[in-house]
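dumping this here before i forget
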Amino acid sequence: MTRNEILAALWHGQDPFTNPPTTLRPLDLQGWRSQHAFLEDAVREWRPSVVVEVGTWKGASAVHMAKAMAAHGVTGTVIAVDTWLGAVDHWTDASLFAELATEHGYPSLYRTFLANVLREGLADRVVPLPLDSVNAAELMRLRGVEVDVVHLDAGHEEASVAADLAAWWSVLRPGGLFIADDYDSSGGRFPGVQRAVDTFCNQHCIENRWELRGKCKFGKPLAPI
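structure:
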Protein backbone atom coordinates (compact mmCIF):
# COMPACT_ATOMS: atom_id res chain seq x y z
CA MET A 1 0.00 0.00 0.00
CA THR A 2 1.40 3.39 -1.01
CA ARG A 3 1.41 6.55 1.08
CA ASN A 4 -1.28 8.07 -1.16
CA GLU A 5 -3.46 5.01 -0.64
CA ILE A 6 -2.93 5.31 3.12
CA LEU A 7 -3.93 8.97 3.02
CA ALA A 8 -7.04 8.08 1.02
CA ALA A 9 -7.97 5.38 3.52
CA LEU A 10 -7.25 7.23 6.76
CA TRP A 11 -7.27 10.95 5.94
CA HIS A 12 -9.91 11.14 3.18
CA GLY A 13 -7.10 12.06 0.80
CA GLN A 14 -5.78 14.95 2.85
CA ASP A 15 -2.07 15.21 3.67
CA PRO A 16 -1.51 16.32 7.30
CA PHE A 17 1.87 17.79 6.33
CA THR A 18 0.36 20.19 3.78
CA ASN A 19 0.77 23.90 4.62
CA PRO A 20 3.04 23.45 7.66
CA PRO A 21 3.59 26.28 10.14
CA THR A 22 5.91 29.01 8.94
CA THR A 23 7.86 28.70 12.18
CA LEU A 24 8.86 25.22 13.23
CA ARG A 25 10.10 24.15 16.63
CA PRO A 26 13.80 23.21 16.87
CA LEU A 27 14.77 19.64 16.08
CA ASP A 28 14.20 17.57 19.24
CA LEU A 29 14.51 13.82 18.71
CA GLN A 30 14.63 12.92 22.39
CA GLY A 31 13.42 9.37 22.94
CA TRP A 32 14.27 5.95 24.34
CA ARG A 33 15.87 3.09 22.36
CA SER A 34 14.94 5.01 19.21
CA GLN A 35 17.73 3.45 17.15
CA HIS A 36 17.37 -0.07 18.47
CA ALA A 37 18.72 -2.86 16.25
CA PHE A 38 15.31 -4.52 16.02
CA LEU A 39 13.90 -1.47 14.20
CA GLU A 40 16.40 -1.36 11.36
CA ASP A 41 16.44 -5.17 11.18
CA ALA A 42 12.67 -5.08 10.66
CA VAL A 43 13.04 -2.69 7.73
CA ARG A 44 15.94 -4.56 6.16
CA GLU A 45 14.54 -8.08 6.59
CA TRP A 46 10.77 -7.53 6.18
CA ARG A 47 11.00 -4.68 3.61
CA PRO A 48 7.64 -3.44 4.83
CA SER A 49 5.19 -1.34 2.84
CA VAL A 50 3.43 -0.29 6.04
CA VAL A 51 4.95 0.10 9.49
CA VAL A 52 2.81 1.24 12.40
CA GLU A 53 4.38 2.80 15.46
CA VAL A 54 1.93 2.92 18.34
CA GLY A 55 3.11 5.57 20.78
CA THR A 56 5.49 7.71 18.78
CA TRP A 57 6.20 10.57 21.27
CA LYS A 58 8.44 13.04 19.39
CA GLY A 59 8.95 10.67 16.47
CA ALA A 60 12.56 9.65 17.04
CA SER A 61 12.07 5.96 16.26
CA ALA A 62 9.60 6.70 13.44
CA VAL A 63 12.24 8.96 11.90
CA HIS A 64 14.85 6.24 12.37
CA MET A 65 12.71 3.63 10.60
CA ALA A 66 11.85 6.05 7.78
CA LYS A 67 15.56 6.77 7.29
CA ALA A 68 16.26 3.02 7.30
CA MET A 69 13.67 2.59 4.54
CA ALA A 70 15.48 5.19 2.44
CA ALA A 71 18.88 3.63 3.16
CA HIS A 72 17.75 0.12 2.22
CA GLY A 73 15.69 1.10 -0.80
CA VAL A 74 12.37 0.18 0.79
CA THR A 75 9.32 1.97 -0.56
CA GLY A 76 7.26 2.13 2.59
CA THR A 77 5.40 4.38 5.01
CA VAL A 78 5.54 4.71 8.78
CA ILE A 79 2.13 5.42 10.31
CA ALA A 80 2.75 7.18 13.63
CA VAL A 81 -0.15 6.56 16.02
CA ASP A 82 -0.40 8.74 19.12
CA THR A 83 -2.75 11.12 20.88
CA TRP A 84 0.30 13.25 21.76
CA LEU A 85 -1.38 13.75 25.15
CA GLY A 86 0.99 11.50 27.11
CA ALA A 87 0.41 8.32 29.08
CA VAL A 88 0.02 7.86 32.83
CA ASP A 89 3.77 8.02 33.48
CA HIS A 90 4.05 11.30 31.55
CA TRP A 91 1.51 12.85 33.91
CA THR A 92 2.99 11.43 37.11
CA ASP A 93 6.65 12.24 36.32
CA ALA A 94 7.33 16.00 36.49
CA SER A 95 10.18 15.90 33.95
CA LEU A 96 8.14 13.94 31.42
CA PHE A 97 5.14 16.16 32.02
CA ALA A 98 7.23 19.18 31.07
CA GLU A 99 7.96 17.53 27.70
CA LEU A 100 4.24 17.69 26.87
CA ALA A 101 4.71 21.46 26.44
CA THR A 102 1.24 22.42 27.60
CA GLU A 103 -0.31 25.56 26.11
CA HIS A 104 -3.44 26.99 27.72
CA GLY A 105 -3.85 23.79 29.69
CA TYR A 106 -3.44 21.39 26.74
CA PRO A 107 -0.37 19.39 25.58
CA SER A 108 1.24 20.63 22.37
CA LEU A 109 3.73 17.79 21.83
CA TYR A 110 2.39 17.11 18.33
CA ARG A 111 4.03 20.34 17.16
CA THR A 112 7.41 18.93 18.16
CA PHE A 113 6.70 15.69 16.28
CA LEU A 114 5.57 17.64 13.21
CA ALA A 115 8.70 19.80 13.23
CA ASN A 116 11.00 16.79 13.63
CA VAL A 117 9.54 14.97 10.61
CA LEU A 118 9.63 18.09 8.45
CA ARG A 119 13.14 19.12 9.49
CA GLU A 120 14.40 15.61 8.69
CA GLY A 121 12.78 15.78 5.24
CA LEU A 122 10.66 12.68 5.82
CA ALA A 123 7.11 13.93 5.31
CA ASP A 124 6.82 11.70 2.23
CA ARG A 125 7.52 8.60 4.35
CA VAL A 126 5.52 9.31 7.53
CA VAL A 127 1.78 9.64 8.18
CA PRO A 128 0.62 10.76 11.64
CA LEU A 129 -2.63 9.33 12.99
CA PRO A 130 -3.77 11.28 16.08
CA LEU A 131 -5.98 8.65 17.69
CA ASP A 132 -5.74 6.40 20.71
CA SER A 133 -4.31 2.97 20.02
CA VAL A 134 -7.52 0.92 20.04
CA ASN A 135 -9.49 3.34 17.84
CA ALA A 136 -6.58 3.66 15.41
CA ALA A 137 -6.42 -0.12 15.03
CA GLU A 138 -10.17 -0.30 14.46
CA LEU A 139 -10.04 2.46 11.83
CA MET A 140 -7.28 0.68 9.96
CA ARG A 141 -9.16 -2.61 10.15
CA LEU A 142 -12.32 -0.99 8.78
CA ARG A 143 -10.35 0.73 6.01
CA GLY A 144 -8.47 -2.43 5.04
CA VAL A 145 -5.00 -1.12 5.88
CA GLU A 146 -2.88 -4.21 6.46
CA VAL A 147 0.36 -3.76 8.40
CA ASP A 148 3.70 -5.51 7.90
CA VAL A 149 5.41 -4.38 11.12
CA VAL A 150 3.99 -3.05 14.40
CA HIS A 151 6.22 -1.26 16.89
CA LEU A 152 4.30 -0.95 20.16
CA ASP A 153 5.53 1.72 22.56
CA ALA A 154 2.37 3.16 24.10
CA GLY A 155 1.06 2.54 27.63
CA HIS A 156 3.06 0.55 30.16
CA GLU A 157 0.33 -0.86 32.40
CA GLU A 158 -0.48 -4.55 31.90
CA ALA A 159 -4.13 -3.95 30.98
CA SER A 160 -3.38 -1.29 28.37
CA VAL A 161 -0.58 -3.34 26.80
CA ALA A 162 -2.86 -6.38 26.63
CA ALA A 163 -5.54 -4.27 24.91
CA ASP A 164 -3.00 -2.90 22.42
CA LEU A 165 -1.67 -6.36 21.60
CA ALA A 166 -5.18 -7.68 20.95
CA ALA A 167 -6.16 -4.65 18.87
CA TRP A 168 -3.12 -4.61 16.59
CA TRP A 169 -2.78 -8.37 16.16
CA SER A 170 -5.85 -8.39 13.91
CA VAL A 171 -4.37 -5.61 11.73
CA LEU A 172 -0.92 -7.18 11.41
CA ARG A 173 -0.72 -9.39 8.33
CA PRO A 174 0.10 -13.10 8.67
CA GLY A 175 3.87 -13.37 8.54
CA GLY A 176 4.26 -9.84 9.87
CA LEU A 177 6.44 -8.74 12.77
CA PHE A 178 5.44 -7.38 16.18
CA ILE A 179 7.98 -5.43 18.27
CA ALA A 180 7.14 -4.53 21.87
CA ASP A 181 9.12 -1.85 23.68
CA ASP A 182 9.87 -1.75 27.43
CA TYR A 183 9.98 -5.55 27.63
CA ASP A 184 12.34 -6.97 30.24
CA SER A 185 12.05 -10.61 31.26
CA SER A 186 13.86 -9.82 34.52
CA GLY A 187 11.11 -7.40 35.55
CA GLY A 188 12.56 -4.01 34.73
CA ARG A 189 10.82 -0.69 35.19
CA PHE A 190 7.58 -1.80 33.56
CA PRO A 191 6.88 -5.42 34.57
CA GLY A 192 3.31 -5.09 33.30
CA VAL A 193 4.63 -4.98 29.73
CA GLN A 194 6.46 -8.27 30.14
CA ARG A 195 3.47 -9.96 31.77
CA ALA A 196 1.09 -8.79 29.04
CA VAL A 197 3.41 -9.88 26.21
CA ASP A 198 4.13 -13.27 27.76
CA THR A 199 0.45 -13.92 28.41
CA PHE A 200 -0.46 -12.91 24.87
CA CYS A 201 2.22 -15.10 23.30
CA ASN A 202 1.19 -18.06 25.43
CA GLN A 203 -2.46 -17.61 24.46
CA HIS A 204 -1.54 -17.52 20.76
CA CYS A 205 0.97 -20.39 21.00
CA ILE A 206 3.86 -18.17 19.93
CA GLU A 207 6.96 -19.99 21.08
CA ASN A 208 9.66 -18.01 19.31
CA ARG A 209 10.26 -14.52 20.60
CA TRP A 210 13.50 -12.63 20.87
CA GLU A 211 14.54 -10.13 23.54
CA LEU A 212 17.29 -7.53 23.27
CA ARG A 213 17.99 -4.43 25.36
CA GLY A 214 14.45 -3.54 26.35
CA LYS A 215 12.54 -4.79 23.32
CA CYS A 216 10.90 -8.07 22.40
CA LYS A 217 9.91 -9.21 18.91
CA PHE A 218 7.87 -12.09 17.55
CA GLY A 219 6.24 -12.99 14.25
CA LYS A 220 2.61 -13.62 13.41
CA PRO A 221 2.21 -17.15 12.03
CA LEU A 222 1.33 -17.49 8.36
CA ALA A 223 -1.47 -19.89 9.24
CA PRO A 224 -4.01 -18.94 11.95
CA ILE A 225 -3.42 -20.62 15.30
